[in-house]
């Protein structure tokens, strides 16, 4: 597999993120149009209320093809961020795409001054659930410091 490139979102990417996640998770987990609405709300709010001092998003590509994405969004508290909409195409899962996305998100969260990062995921979404360990290790550097990461499922 070729090198993963992370870039900022551009026009059309947000629609793709909504479409791809809604379609795939309907097939894999039976999620319905309500989930698609949730995705649309998250993306819409990100676009409308974007604050580059507190938020960012990344799109992963391999050979010019979009293969994943992740969002860093403001949390409910000043020192808390949210890792949202982590997604990796099935054909590239296990290849480091998700790890690259999570690392970029964690590095940015630290640079923006976040002390905690909340990962919300559907319990059946194995890739996102597995990422919670990577998120914790990346943010804290020490898996025993569980207080630095809140994981909600």
From TrEMBL:
A molecular-function term among this protein's GO annotations: N-acetyltransferase activity
CDD domains: NAT_SF
Domain of life where this protein originates: Bacteria
Segments forming domain N-acetyltransferase: 4-153
Matches recorded under SUPFAM superfamilies: Acyl-CoA N-acyltransferases (Nat)
Transferase among keywords: yes
Keywords attached to this entry: Transferase
Name of the featured protein: N-acetylglutamate synthase-like GNAT family acetyltransferase
Organism: Rhizobium laguerreae
